Amino acid sequence: MKTLIYVPIIHTSADLGSIAKAVAKRGIADLGEGFWEEHEKTIEGFWDAIAKCFDSIEVSGFKIYQDGMIADEEVGRKIVEEGAKKGSKNHEIVLRLLERGAILVKTEDFSLVRKEYDYIKKLTQAKSMPGRMIAYLQYRLVRNGLLRQRDEFIARQINETLERGETGILFIGAAHRIIPLLPQWIQVRQVKEVEKIREYQQIFQRIFLFRKETRKRFEELARYLVSPVNQN
Question: Domain residue spans in the chain?
Answer without folding.
Answer: 2-226
